[in-house]
Amino acid sequence: MKSQRGKSQRKQAASPSQSEPVEVYCRIRPIDDPGDTVCVKPIGDSLVQLIPPEISSLRNGVTKEYQYTFRQVFDETASQKAVFDQTALPLVEDLVAGKNGLLFTYGVTGSGKTYTMTGEPQDQGILPRCLDVLFNSIDNYQAKKYVFRPDRMNRFEVQTEADAMMERQRREIMPNLTTPSKASLKRPESGERICDPTKVDTVEEDNNYAVFVSYIEIYNNYVYDLLEELPYNSITGYKPPQTKILRTDSGDNMYVHNCTEVEVKQSQDAIDVFYKGQRRRKVAHTALNAESSRSHSVFNIRLVQAPLDERGEEVVQDDVMCYDSEKICVSQLSLVDLAGSERSNRTKNSGDRLKEAGNINQSLMVLRNCLEVLRENQKTGASKMVPYRDSRLTHLFKNFFDGDGKVRMIVCVNPKMTEYDETIHVMKFAEMTQEVLITKSQQSNKFDLGLTPGRRHLHELQLENAVASPEILNPPPLPSMLDFTFGPPFPLLEMVSPTDDVTTRNIIQCLNERIRRRQEMSLDFERSCTFFRSQLVEFEQDHKVTKSRLIEIEDKYSQKEKLFTKMESKNKKLERKVDELSKQLKDMERENQLLGLQVQDKNWKIQAEKNNFDKLKADFRNRLQMNNMAWEKNLEKARRQLEKEAENQLDERDRKLEMLRDIVNENDLPPATPSRARMRTAPQPTPKPRTYTNSAGIQTAISETDITSVGSSTIASSARAAAGRAGNTRVTSRSTNRIPAAKSIPNLSQVGVTPSSSKSRQPVVNPRYHRRSKSSGSAEQWLEHKPADIVETNTIFQPQMTKKKSVTKLDVKDTKTATKYVLTHQEQDSSDELVTKLIKGDVIPTLGGGAAVVFHDVETLKQVSPGSRKRRSPTTPRYDPALQWTDTEERCSVALEGHKRSRTTNL
């Protein structure tokens, strides 16, 4: 009897109501050290939060927390039982109901995928628990071994009981020396295995079941059978395994050709087969895991079921079957342990390990591409080709993604902070996988063969009654159960002589015995007929009673069937309504998640704006406080400056009056009443002036008396305040000093002034230059001598000249109308700062018709950095004049232009 894979047909595009999304679960592995920081934190039954580390390098340098939604989230304290009940138990129920299922674990290396799948003997994982639940459910309904036989083409054949018995004798009763014993297949365990007692209640009682398991691995994109018996040679040893190919059966289902399938009758046998293949699986040591899986392993559990005959004893044979497609149902559950994705810079792999990691990452990338194309086709209605054939992994499970069963995924996460960059890619893949829709499977284990339901139960009931009442199974014998023979055989009929009485007597005795037996048989026949008639009457009476009861049962059954039809229609309506509500709920959850992300983003922006506002507010408060302090200082210093200017004006007036008095009374005695300047300053000796001649032939006389210092530099904090209001980062220090002597003027030859000979050092001046009338238009007029290579400083401290004339080269005609002269000179100081010096003097007409310049002032302009506002230390000695001023006063010092009396002596 040939079989098909359930009732599967070619897949067609299904409507959204006939499809369901891929269910994705998340399991967080416990960390080794509880004190370590984690990057994954569960915040609900279906929500996790991904926390980036402080040094995480992400796009645009922005670190942001993310939240991901799953079907169910298992934290570090979740047990293996809880994970199995939520993820794999519904797949086992579908397996018993004739539907296919695929469950695979996904995650990085060392995230707990293999532990979730296999577990430990005392705490079993998903795979052993699936086997326990399956055999707990079908334990009393299993067919005898070898009744179902695989045909190596992904189908099964049904044998008679006689053929199955011959197969058992050939494989099990007769010894096979080449096959290893079962004891050698068992895995040595440290403790006794604890079985899962769960049981599925939806088992079809009128079917016979058989379980077949197979175990394969996909290593470097090649398929290997882990249960294949390898040929052994005493010289070369075991031959290497051969790769398997993927083929398509008659129902367009993908399978591994010539893959070994082992029929098992209990869960321990299946687990022994699993550990046999586990020893041949490719594992290796890496920097991240001591036993890292180097291949994808696939453990297939196939449940074969077929209906019983009308007596409920054996599987229905071909002569009773109605359609070939209904002969047998095969359902499959595939448990896949995917290898973890790896990066070579973390695992430090090289050689074969590096090649294996490349193939693993390539297959996982193909799986992701297939799911992305599926999602795009479902969302946009496109018909792009899904690249299943790019990898053996995706090609093998093509049918599941096309709608041949339910697909579930468990994402295993290592919450260590060092795994953040890998975990975020796993989370994005899981989020994308949940959006892929899979067509609901239409397979079923219901066989419509027109046979009476409950056949197995009726047969078992008869056997129980036979054990309880043996006369039902073996009715009592009839009143005389004779041996239906006519007596002993005839004796020897040959007579030796006419007087042979012995022979005649023997013949007479034999005939009499036969006549007697015939009469007894006739009487027995009559009694048997009478007994049969009585039994037949009783049977007819029972038949009438049974028929009446059957009519009542049929009426009740028809009523139940109508009620069942009504309830079924109502159930379908409710299912459609539930599907619509579930779809709306998912849409609302997705919209809620999106709105939550938007709210989170807006809150982040609001917080950033608030921080900026607080920062600007604090900055404004600081600036306002500094401005208030600066204004207070400026007002105080402006007051001092006004007092100083008033005092300077008085000194200037006294100086002019004294000069006028000296000119008028140059041969008289000094005045009796001293001036204000003389009262404050001590008399100074009158040195002889030095005469300089420039390139234009103009003589310049500089008197040491006229170049004496007017006083030390005064502090002008108003310069700092003005510079601060102008937005400058540097302030200008301006100092006004009297020239001590002509030799202190640097580089006078550069500006066209050269010293004259020693014979003509005294300037020949006109003693009546002071009598020039200001009302005649000859008021104070400046001659500004500025070389062409002067750098403009554009500072706020510039000399104030009401009338000036600027020249780059001094000429005699320029001095005719000028009364004041200023020479601009620039140089660099020891700290490479630009220093501008303004050398000022008076232009005095000479007797020969020329002009002489008497220098009396040097004004220095330089820019310095404001620096820090340091205060004078209380430990500073008061007797040190160099430390009497703070750094701020030194940096903000400016000089106020003041004129002390100058005296020119004509020699």
From TrEMBL:
SMART domains recorded: KISc (SM00129)
Record GO terms (molecular function): ATP binding; ATP hydrolysis activity; microtubule binding; microtubule motor activity
Keyword terms of this UniProt record: ATP-binding, Coiled coil, Cytoplasm, Cytoskeleton, Microtubule, Motor protein, Nucleotide-binding
Gene behind this protein: LOC106056579
Binding site for ATP: 107-114
Organism: Biomphalaria glabrata
Keyword GTP-binding: no
Biased composition range(s): Polar residues: 11-20, 729-738, 746-763
Domain Kinesin motor: 21-436
InterPro entries with a match to the protein in the record: Kif23_Arf-bd (IPR032384), Kif23_Arf-bd_sf (IPR038105), Kinesin-like_fam (IPR027640), Kinesin_motor_CS (IPR019821), Kinesin_motor_dom (IPR001752), Kinesin_motor_dom_sf (IPR036961), P-loop_NTPase (IPR027417)
GO cellular component annotations of the record: kinesin complex; microtubule; nucleus
Protein name in UniProt: Kinesin-like protein
Location, primary (coarse class): cytoplasm
Compositional bias of kind Basic residues: 1-10
Annotated spans, Disordered: 1-21, 665-694, 719-785, 864-884
Keyword Phosphoprotein: no
